[in-house]
What we know:
Blueprint: E1 9-14, E2 20-27, E3 31-35, H1 46-52, E4 57-61, H2 78-92, E5 96-100, H3 102-113, E6 119-123, H4 138-146, H5 150-160, H6 173-190, H7 198-201, H8 205-214, E7 228-234, H9 239-251, E8 255-260, H10 277-288
Parallel strand pairs: 3-4, 3-5, 5-6, 6-7, 7-8
Antiparallel strand pairs: 1-2, 2-4
Keywords: Hydrolase
GO molecular function: hydrolase activity
InterPro entries: AB_hydrolase_1, AB_hydrolase_fold, Carboxylesterase_BioH
Amino acid sequence: xxxxxxxxxxxxxxxxxxxxxxxxxxxxxxxxxxxxxxxxxxxxxxxxxxxxxxxxxxxxxxxxxxxxxxxxxxxxxxxxxxxxxxxxxxxxxxxxxxxxxxxxxxxxxxxxxxxxxxxxxxxxxxxxxxxxxxxxxxxxxxxxxxxxxxxxxxxxxxxxxxxxxxxxxxxxxxxxxxxxxxxxxxxxxxxxxxxxxxxxxxxxxxxxxxxxxxxxxxxxxxxxxxxxxxxxxxxxxxxxxxxxxxxxxxxxxxxxxxxxxxxxxxxxxxxxxxxxxxxxxxxxxxxxx
Length: 289
């Protein structure tokens, strides 16, 4: 259970293509936008936002296709996500952005093209460097989603992205499917109107994987990024995520790197989801202050 320490307001902006982008707002001070990753929504970093709310006004958008925001729409790609961030920055006056995973890819692209972003913090972007990971599993994932096999698709996505506890690699897929179905059913029963469930989020993975493919092997394109950038990652995260951070550290002209000992790709999330929001918040507070 998340214990909210401050009042939360909701709002929305209209992106360039007419899509509504909903967001949550809490705290007081300079604006910081948190861009969530795959299988997440605006509620996925509430604990982190609460940890920052004494110093910053934190904006938590639902990326398009999720929660209170509109559909992915035609011609979906990184540019659409950048337009969504641009609309939010224009309305709120925020100048600092924190992106998580696929949200970090969006934040990188936004910081490269939107001069209003003064500082960008980046947590483990799945940026493919020299073939560091393959997305060949996407065709299997898409087929399983089309067949209504949501649990199987989620397993394919988790294994393809090399996420989840390592012991799961030894568990037979049929048993993993049973476990995943049970988890989704339990969440469905407990969810309220603000919950964006695993079952609802499962089809959105296609679009996150699309971003990964679109931005693969593009690290050299960020040489001209002029914003101050904080690169964040966990010591226990998959090797390809560390490879991406290594490459960005060599490429970006104004980058600083922090690694969280003993943490993994879940570090930024809510405490109930194995996150360590207070640890991440301290690094962000030092950077954005």
